[in-house]
Design brief:
mainly alpha, globular, 172 residues
Length: 172
């Protein structure tokens, strides 16, 4: 009986150590700042980026709640895609505005002005929700949605884009 308990304990210890290693690896990847895709150009040294207008954070909070998303995810996309609005210029792929939408994608998931923060925020939330994102910024579903938002096909992987969104979103 003692040998049986020892085997069970050893098995539980291995499971616990594997779980800790996976969490440590994910946390390490999430805090590593890497360059994002060619459609975005974020190199902010601070997770929160420039001091945002309070109304932007309030809008992110409200829209995230409306769509059942994490505000950190939306804030991280905003930071990654346009350096928190300081670089909303058109990308080489034709993406525009603070959340860097292709006009055709914006037309499908939003309305109004692609350059307007509120309109683009709502479209981004709608699009991310459609892609499967949820209220957990670290879920595989949110990773897949972010990779699809970026068009890199990374699936549930923590790509450089996902890592950037997680890092910049942590400043929310």
């Amino acid at each position: 009986m003692n040998a049986g308990l020892g085997v069970v304990f050893a098995g539980l210890l291995v499971v616990a150590l594997v779980g800790l290693a996976a969490k440590s690896s994910a946390a390490s990847a999430a805090t590593t700042t890497t360059s994002s895709s060619s459609s975005s150009s974020s190199s902010s040294s601070s997770p929160s980026g420039p001091a945002p207008a309070g109304s932007q954070k309030q809008q992110v909070q409200q829209v995230a709640a409306q769509f059942g998303l994490s505000p950190q995810t939306l804030w991280g996309v905003y930071g990654t895609e346009s350096s928190f609005g300081s670089n909303p210029s058109t990308s080489s792929a034709g993406a525009q505005g603070p959340f860097q939408f292709l006009p055709s994608t914006f037309a499908s998931y939003g309305h109004g002005d692609i350059q307007n923060f509120t309109d683009a925020l709502t479209a981004a939330a709608n699009y991310l929700k459609h892609l499967g994102a949820n209220s957990n910024p670290n879920s595989p579903q949110t990773f897949t949605a972010l990779n699809n938002y970026n068009g890199n096909g990374g699936g549930t992987s923590i790509t450089s884009y996902v890592s950037s969104v997680l890092h910049l979103g942590s400043g929310f």
